[in-house]
Design brief:
Length: about 425
């Protein structure tokens, strides 16, 4: 672990108002503007947290869904800052931001929003509480995403996701606009030929036909052999035949052995089995259900290229989490000081994110096992390091709350490709 950096204290309402009316001496990049104070929730952190701990009933489709198994109160401080920024930016525009959990008696328990005993909604392992394996909690999170979007609509995002661009405008001009052909918002890996939507940011109106099929396929994968309790080996399912596995050029050294790139790819495919299910649906032509996934992608999905759109810090630092942490922890040069080479690189990273990215995903879970420490894991382990005024991390943090982008991100121009599978969704062709 790197040395801890002292963090800022919880913001009071007066401090928030001061930030809204007197921005720190951070450069406002070209292509961004200051959000009018009337469009921001300027109450104290404690008041915002109260709203997040006491979610209001669902009234429409403008919902942002997060999940943290043990509840918002137990989340790491940096993740709470992520969620508060979403709330401050979006609540005055009619969005309800909720962090669901699996805490009995909690107002945010998933059971208050979905039937947790319904086998059409959740697999047996979820219903009986028997999910197992190294990443069981992450898979609980995966299993609530499709049901929430299908029943209520809105956006599902990981708590480690920083929103940068104008989500409200993108929503209004795409999926919420009856004249728009777009029905799904996400990020996509692999360029225009890729069919790998990232499950850390998914958005649609309720009852979306793509997510409905993804959900049925995911339930079938979990229901195989009398009911799975983990995703281990799930990539071998005949229902996923034809879907490319995740690939990796990396190895893992642990417990005295080397896990080679092929096995790492299989581990990633099982870990992100929800992504494998999405990819199959997008590459499926099912005449029985009159479903043409390749055409649906080309006509109805607004997908942002994932590397520029949500991973740009990692591209700048070659996925070196320690380097990213050190650069983001640097202070900006004071007036009259000469910018160092490291400060220049940190500035270029922040400016690029604010100008070119729509968000940023802080990596955790299996990615840490594969890649080593990440910016997200180091912000978690060095509490407060992401929120030190005058640093590049704080500049980025400030922008995600008080500034917005002038333009929307470009959508990938998908073409209709050859399907991975022709045949019924839930039968091996």
């Amino acid at each position: 672990m790197l040395p801890a950096v002292p963090g800022a204290s919880t913001n009071t309402a007066a401090q928030i108002r001061d930030k809204m009316n007197h921005s720190p001496d951070y450069p406002l990049p070209r292509g961004m503007h200051v959000v009018p104070p009337a469009l921001l929730d300027g109450r104290s952190d404690a008041e915002v947290d109260h709203d997040l701990l006491h979610p209001r009933p669902v009234s429409d489709e403008k919902n942002v869904w997060f999940f943290w198994h043990s509840g918002y109160a137990t989340m790491h401080a940096y993740a709470k800052r992520n969620v508060r920024a979403w709330h401050r930016r979006l609540s005055r525009r009619g969005w309800a931001v909720r962090v669901l959990d699996r805490v009995p008696g909690s107002a945010s328990d998933v059971a208050n929003f979905l039937d947790v005993a319904d086998p059409r909604t959740f697999p047996r392992a979820f219903i009986e509480g028997t999910l197992s394996g190294r990443y069981a909690v992450q898979h609980v999170s995966d299993l609530v995403r499709f049901p929430l979007l299908l029943r209520y609509g809105g956006v599902y995002a990981d708590v480690g996701f920083l929103q940068i661009g104008d989500l409200d405008r993108l929503w209004r001009e795409t999926v919420a606009d009856p004249a728009s052909p777009y029905e799904v918002l996400s990020y996509n890996m692999g360029g225009v030929e890729g069919r790998r939507l990232t499950n850390y940011f998914l958005a649609s109106r309720r009852d979306n036909p793509m997510f409905e099929r993804c959900h049925r396929l995911l339930l079938a994968l979990w229901g195989a052999d009398g009911g799975k309790t983990s995703t281990e080996g799930m990539h071998l399912s005949p229902l996923l035949k034809g879907v490319p596995l995740m690939t990796s050029s990396l190895t893992i050294e642990e417990e005295g052995r080397t896990i080679g790139p092929e096995e790492v790819g299989r581990l990633l495919s099982d870990y992100i089995i929800q992504g494998q299910a999405i990819t199959m649906v997008l590459g499926l032509v099912d005449e029985e259900e009159v479903w043409d996934g390749p055409r649906y992608v080309a006509e109805h999905i607004y997908a942002i290229e994932y590397m520029v759109g949500s991973q740009l810090i990692n591209e700048f630092t070659d996925w070196d989490g320690k380097k990213a942490f050190e650069l983001m922890s640097l202070p900006l040069p004071k007036r009259g000081e000469v910018e160092s080479a490291e400060q220049k690189q940190a500035r270029e990273i922040v400016e690029a994110c604010l100008q070119r990215s729509f968000g940023f995903k802080l990596a955790h879970g299996l990615i840490i096992r594969v890649m080593g420490c990440t910016l997200g894991s180091l912000w978690r382990d060095n509490e407060g390091s992401d929120d030190v005024p005058g640093t590049y991390a704080h500049w980025l943090r400030y922008a995600t709350t008080y500034w917005n982008q002038d333009e929307l991100p470009p959508a990938l121009e998908f073409k209709v490709i050859e399907p991975f599978k022709r045949g019924p969704l839930l039968r091996e062709s």
